[in-house]
Design brief:
With about 350 residues, the chain is an alpha/beta fold. The protein folds into two domains: about 280 residues, Spore Coat Polysaccharide Biosynthesis Protein SpsA, Chain A, CATH 3.90.550; about 50 residues, no CATH class. It has eleven helices and 15 strands. The strands form four sheets. It has a five-stranded mixed beta barrel. It has a two-stranded antiparallel sheet with strand order 5-11. Helix 1 links the parallel strand 1 and strand 2.
């Protein structure tokens, strides 16, 4: 059975001032009629029932997650499973905790791992790709969906592909292409990013993965033995009254480490599947503007915005009336430069 594991914890201000430390962007409604968390939950609803959706979050955000899920059709009555971490310990611990629960319910279960705050434009293409990549995960592979880059982006990590996956040993579904992973590359300088895109050998690491719960637990045992020991303690108390106390005690002594550093960069099971799905991590307002509907002047304006002759601008507000006259990204940059005593930059 396929399970969706959504990482919805963490805090941040990457879309400040709307995104705050205690109310980060996964809980915001930026594109469409749902928040990013809700869209992530609904993304696979055609192939994954609500009872097989697992949300990993923090104690301070549990109420927000429950509230947003309760407003989704089919998720009333908390049908999805909400797993609460007592302390933030990065993605390795969060994924290990979710894998314990999935494996307890479904020993052969496959997890599709999704960040809660990303955007995928081509939903149907994504779902079809997940269904095809499922066969690789069932063969014991750790599958990464590598985003085909369309520009030299310095803010993302990259995955360098190696040799094609030996399809003769493990036949792939029609149309699926997979490669062994040669290297993980951290956020590069611009010249390196330009080389990566031109080579057609690199993909953006979007943090979207598929694997069997039992397999990722085995890989954690191999590469992160301390985490594996802690997960073993937690496993013995799942479903008991002592579980929360044990969870807090274990988490207090765990190292905060990502699944990429801790497991994936060392594993021999990892393969990458190229994914052209219209992905974005919505890391700044420019990205939100690029993906939003715009008027004939290139503006994206909230309904409460009254504008005259602005161009290429993103103006957001949800309460008070906002008025803009002749505003543009170029004039905003000139005003910032003037305040800082810098020369005006032409665009």
């Amino acid at each position: 059975m396929l399970h969706a594991v959504i990482l919805a914890g963490g805090s941040g201000t990457r879309l400040w001032p709307l995104s705050r430390v205690h109310y980060p962007k996964q809980f915001l409604q930026l594109l469409g009629d749902h928040t990013l968390l809700q869209q992530t939950v609904l993304r696979l609803r055609e192939v994954i029932p609500a009872e097989c959706v697992w949300i990993v979050t923090e104690k301070e955000q549990e109420f927000i997650v429950r509230s947003q899920l309760g407003n989704l059709p089919g998720f009333e009555g908390n049908k999805a499973h909400i797993l609460v971490e007592p302390l933030p310990r990065n993605t390795a611990a969060a994924i290990g905790l979710a894998a314990l629960h999935v494996c307890r319910r479904d020993p052969q279960g496959v997890m599709v791992l999704l960040p809660a705050d990303h955007w995928i434009e081509q939903q149907s293409v994504f779902v079809a790709l997940v269904q095809k990549a499922l066969s690789l995960a069932q063969q014991g592979r750790l599958v990464s969906l590598g985003i085909i880059p369309d520009r030299p982006e310095t803010g993302y990590g990259y995955i360098r592909r190696g040799a094609p996956f030996p399809a003769l040993l493990a036949p792939l579904p029609n149309g699926l292409v997979a490669y062994q992973v040669d290297q993980f590359v951290e956020k590069p300088q611009l010249l390196s990013a330009q080389h990566y895109v031109a080579s057609n050998e690199y993909y953006w690491n979007a943090g979207i993965f598929l694997w069997q719960a039992a397999v990722i637990l085995a890989e954690i045992a191999t590469h992160l033995p301390v985490l594996h020991q802690g997960l073993g303690e937690i496993s013995q108390h799942l479903g008991t009254d002592e579980c929360w106390d044990v969870l807090r005690a274990v988490y207090s002594r765990l190292e905060a480490i990502s699944i990429d550093y801790g497991v994936l960069e060392k594993s021999t099971r990892l393969v990458v599947v190229p994914a052209d799905i219209g992905w974005s991590d919505l890391g700044d307002w420019t990205a939100v503007h690029r993906l939003s509907a715009r008027d004939e002047r290139g503006n994206t304006l909230s309904p409460n915005v009254f504008d005259l002759k602005s161009e290429n601008s993103f103006v957001y507000g949800d309460r008070r009336l906002i008025a803009t006259i002749g505003f543009s990204r170029a004039t905003a940059g000139a005003r910032r430069a003037k305040r800082r005593g810098l020369p005006k930059l032409s665009r």
